[in-house]
């Protein structure tokens, strides 16, 4: 589903990603953990072309977004990135639009689908995230957990084949993380392919098929949750885990 080969990204002379390699199989859930500044967000943002890498390759379903540092054509980039949805730490909802309009805006403008079909899907997805009664509310009137569930429903409106989450619960009060994590867990059970950057170690242990520990721009260690949490091999993995758990 996703193949990343020797990915490199620098900002000026700061090397943020140094030869990152990994792949994700269809239906797999990969949790990415690691200290602040280790390159987790940059790696995710590169996948949907919010950042341009300085070297290496990204293949999505066998098609190259970038191959040896050379990007595909704009049309190709659009077609590849449209298969992925991303959910951000700070929700990024449109404040002047209702919940329902937040969900329907992109499908209406990008997909040019029939309005009745878009409405059917927005109602179905709001029900799925437990917010059927909030269709006409504005983001300012929602809790953080509700906003993040709207953001997830909005991402699903585009029928993505891959979902990327960048610390989806880090901006939430602790009592609101559960309602968001439950929605993500349900998507995992439905076999959505996902990469989840998270500080929620219990959640990573519970839902991830594989855990990647990033440190200093590289994948320091990866394995099953049992391996990474139960028997980490590297001193820096142990040290990170002892600080967050
Ligand atoms: P993480 O998500 O693991 O905290 P990031 O990917 O956000 O890490 O950042 C990795 C490094 O890249 C950090 O040192 C950060 O300061 C730097 N960085 C991120 N974005 C930019 C940017 N637009 N310009 C310069 N440096 C950046
Ligand atoms: Mg980050």
TrEMBL record:
PANTHER family: AMINO ACID IMPORT ATP-BINDING PROTEIN, L-CYSTINE IMPORT ATP-BINDING PROTEIN TCYN. It is a peripheral membrane protein. This is Polar amino acid transport system ATP-binding protein. Pfam families: ABC_tran (PF00005). The keyword Acetylation does not apply. GO terms for molecular function: ATP binding. InterPro entries: AAA+_ATPase (IPR003593), ABC_ATPase_HisP-typ (IPR030679), ABC_transporter-like_ATP-bd (IPR003439), ABC_transporter-like_CS (IPR017871), MetN_ABC_transporter-like (IPR050086), P-loop_NTPase (IPR027417). Keywords: ATP-binding, Cell membrane, Membrane, Nucleotide-binding, Transport. Residues 2-241 form the ABC transporter domain. It is found in: Cell membrane. It comes from Paenibacillus sediminis. The keyword Cytoplasm does not apply.
């Amino acid at each position: 589903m996703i193949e990343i080969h020797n990915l490199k990204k620098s900002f000026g002379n700061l090397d943020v990603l140094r030869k990152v390699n990994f792949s994700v199989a269809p239906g797999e859930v990969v949790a990415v953990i690691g200290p602040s500044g280790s390159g987790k967000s940059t790696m995710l943002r590169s996948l949907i072309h919010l950042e341009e890498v300085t070297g290496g390759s990204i293949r999505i379903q066998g098609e190259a977004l970038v191959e040896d540092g050379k990007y595909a054509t704009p049309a190709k980039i659009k077609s590849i990135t449209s298969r992925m949805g991303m959910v951000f730490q700070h929700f990024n909802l449109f404040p002047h639009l209702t919940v329902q309009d937040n969900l329907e805006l992109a499908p209406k403008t990008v997909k040019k689908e029939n309005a009745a079909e878009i409405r059917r899907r927005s109602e179905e997805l709001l029900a799925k995230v437990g917010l059927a009664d909030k269709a006409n509310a504005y983001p300012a009137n929602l809790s953080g957990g509700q906003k993040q569930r709207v953001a997830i429903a909005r991402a699903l409106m585009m029928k993505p084949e891959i979902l990327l989450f960048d610390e989806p619960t880090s901006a939430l009060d602790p009592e609101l993380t559960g309602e968001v994590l439950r929605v993500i867990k349900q998507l995992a059970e439905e076999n959505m392919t996902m990469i989840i950057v998270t500080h929620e170690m219990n959640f990573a242990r519970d839902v991830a098929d594989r855990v990647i520990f990033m440190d200093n721009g590289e994948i320091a260690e990866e394995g099953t949750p049992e391996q990474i949490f139960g028997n980490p091999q590297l001193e820096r993995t142990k040290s990170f885990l002892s600080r967050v758990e």
